[in-house]
Design brief:
CATH topology of the largest domain: Tetracycline Repressor, domain 2
Radius of gyration: 23 Å
Shape: elongated
Order of helices and strands: HHHHHHHHHHH
Length: 241
């Protein structure tokens, strides 16, 4: 009778164990799941308030497995942010074939597609960056911003920006990032309206910068002439002939 009772006790699940059942996954798939769980947590709480146990529980994995794949929380945090950054950069690869402002608008739409579809990754990437500007985390965020700057320069047919244009473009990128975080938090403005506003903001910033730099004045003149020559109702992204 004692052995039967003991067997029944061993068969019972541990009290409070709500962890999802573990599944056999490939190494790459398991790493992706751990990073996704980490991004979800890091987007809601500061990194110092997220433990390895939290990530393991959210992913339905063991604490030892998280350490096995990443070595520690800092390594996991950096890997998760790099994953989010790589997904965003892949989304922003230039399509080509359109006029500068149209290309910029299409790129902005793809940017906000990522913001909407990968909210946790976007929030963790931008909210986590400034906390460690001198370390790997700051490098990840800076690399994304540098990529965005290069992309915008390519869309505007600019080989090498002078200091006034560079500052203007980097200021606009900061505005887009802030707009993305604000939109995720509130969603009290329609996305197309927000995107149009940001494109208008770019033109306005260039207008101010043109007063201080001839290169910007020439670029702005080209953009304004291009905008004036296009149809009033621009086709939506992907529908151009």
């Amino acid at each position: 009778m004692g052995s039967t009772s003991g067997a029944a006790e061993r068969a019972k699940p541990a009290a409070g164990s709500a962890r999802p059942a573990r599944r056999r996954l490939s190494v790459d798939r398991r790493r992706e799941e751990l990073m996704a769980a980490a991004l979800e947590l890091f987007s809601k709480r500061d990194a110092e308030h997220v433990s390895i146990d939290d990530v393991a529980s959210a992913a339905g994995a063991s604490r030892a497995l998280v350490y096995h794949y990443f070595g520690g929380k800092q390594e996991l945090y950096v890997a998760a942010l790099r994953s989010a950054a790589a997904q965003l950069e892949a989304r922003l690869r230039p399509q080509g074939g359109e006029r500068p402002l149209d290309e910029l608008a299409c790129g902005l739409t793809r940017y906000f597609d990522f913001v909407e579809e990968h909210a946790t990754g976007f929030a963790a990437l931008l909210k986590g960056g400034p906390a460690d500007r001198s370390g790997e985390i700051g490098e990840v965020v800076d690399a994304v911003r540098h990529r965005l700057l290069k992309l915008i320069m390519k869309q505007m047919r600019v080989e090498e920006p002078g200091p006034v244009l560079r500052v203007t473009l980097r200021s606009w990128i900061a505005s887009v990032e802030t707009a993305g975080l604000d939109w995720l938090e509130r969603r009290d403005i329609e996305r197309p309206e927000l995107e149009r506003m940001l494109i208008g903001q770019m033109v306005a910033l260039l207008g101010v910068a043109a007063e201080h730099d001839a290169q910007v004045g020439e670029l702005l003149g080209d953009l304004v002439r291009d905008r004036a020559s296009r149809p009033a109702d621009r086709p939506s992204s992907g529908s151009d002939a």
